[in-house]
Structure prediction request, 660 residues.
Amino acid sequence: MEFRLIDRLQALTAQARDDVRLGIGDDAALLAVPAGQELAVAIDTLVEGVHFPRGTAAADIGWKALAVNLSDLAAMGATPAWALLALTLPVQPAEAQQALVDGLADGFAQLARSHGVALVGGDTTRGPFVLSVAVHGFVPPGQALRRDGARVGDLVFVTGTLGDAAAGLQRLAPSPDPDEEKRRVALRARLNRPEPRVAAGLALRGRASACIDVSDGLLADLGHVCMASGVGAELVAPMLPLSSALLGCCDEAAARDYALSGGDDYELCFTVPPARAGEVQADLARLGCGATRIGRIVAGDGVRVRDADGQWLTPVRSGWDHFPDETARP
Amino acid sequence: MEFRLIDRLQALTAQARDDVRLGIGDDAALLAVPAGQELAVAIDTLVEGVHFPRGTAAADIGWKALAVNLSDLAAMGATPAWALLALTLPVQPAEAQQALVDGLADGFAQLARSHGVALVGGDTTRGPFVLSVAVHGFVPPGQALRRDGARVGDLVFVTGTLGDAAAGLQRLAPSPDPDEEKRRVALRARLNRPEPRVAAGLALRGRASACIDVSDGLLADLGHVCMASGVGAELVAPMLPLSSALLGCCDEAAARDYALSGGDDYELCFTVPPARAGEVQADLARLGCGATRIGRIVAGDGVRVRDADGQWLTPVRSGWDHFPDETARP
Prediction:
């Protein structure tokens, strides 16, 4: 390919990592996993028009492609180390392509540097606009946060706030009202620049009984934990952590729906035995993201939600299908 | 996603690998690299209409997506272990989608099983038809085959035969002539079902001074070795290994051009000090792929080709740009 994205990314993400024995430029990278550590690996794809709207800033796309993958490592309690990038880009005029590539590289590299992640390999091809990133991290044997460890009686927590990204997705156009615009910008930032909860994941090792990142929506993702653990969960809607930006731009019922079913928040949802809840909350508060108790694990299966008045809610949908597909063929 | 490709692939590729501590189904896989081994990792993408023509059999696509990646490991002398698959597929009627997914899974799994590769993670999304595969293998520290070790005086070899895949790409339509059709089928098989030279790569460890797989075309790929090693190469055109299928369907000059500039052969091109050439050739002959001496490393830079009469050839192009793009935007 003519566009030198990988070279540019390599320059921007050059990390002084002793464990990269041979980086970009050969048929494969050569890497050394630290003795006594297991390797955690994940891969995730972003497709234009499916995972980000056409017109999204290139730097946001580059950031997000790495962020959604680091979020997977965070959910395992792994320390990020290396990334691979497979980028497919349409042929376009040189100037536009250079701007796109520079933006992608800048956003990707900015997040990579902040987590000490080295780009060790990549592939660039022409075609529709699709990015796949694979990430690698380390975790001591037996200490990874899995989905299958939730037990009846555990408390359910979530970091940060929920629903912001989904609400941001509905607010593409700037608002003439300054307060509304400020909220819109805050929500859009949650959508475009998710902060993978890596430090929180590390703090949860040895404490959380199960963990997952909220990418498809709380109900769907906690549902995966329940399924894997053979348990059910009961949530209390008024306990869901909602940002002031979200509450400022819709009523509480709509905010709750965003929080339950919206995706792309990349917070961690985890379960903790009650005896450990206090220390976990204190530690995550110190890390800045905080952790809010939102329910508990019960016998049975599935996720049920109780409203403020104690009534069971019937969610309209159990997940979030991103936004109307711009690329699907008929 | 509704299509259960990853589940199906998991079932088909389930390997009894002790080093997979946690496979598909959580936020990341947990893997154990054997003590004292380095990890070799690579990623490659196939795009419909760019890397394979529309209408290619699904099983061939699944096979090739893994094969091009295993070829990268082969070129490093690494033993394959694990793969990740990121698949983007258009929305289509359920029956067609199921057939496509089944075919992809069958082809991928067939090759994975033959190399003991476990699929440990994946991601499926809707969008244009794009597959990215990341592979992981093991290599003892310091023994990987790199591009930068070629030395003046080394001999240049290539496994198997060259040019078949590129010639096959020009022959989409069946021929009414039975002999011509037999040749066409053989050439198409080289294009659609490349055999990664994993065993050859392992046999070259500690012997070859440099190695690369021929994916973009011999001139381009050997050019990468020369660039990385700070040397030049002289090839002798009549020494290029050409299959009877290729020679049967075009004249020798055309066959030579396919061999020099055609891509997608996935043979290994490597350099060996003269003293080791005999043993290497004998070992690769025993492995079935053979190795043909095609030239030597010289001082200088770039790759030059001498014809039968000793004249220097001037290649029209120094690489192979796949085939006319079906997907590029204007």
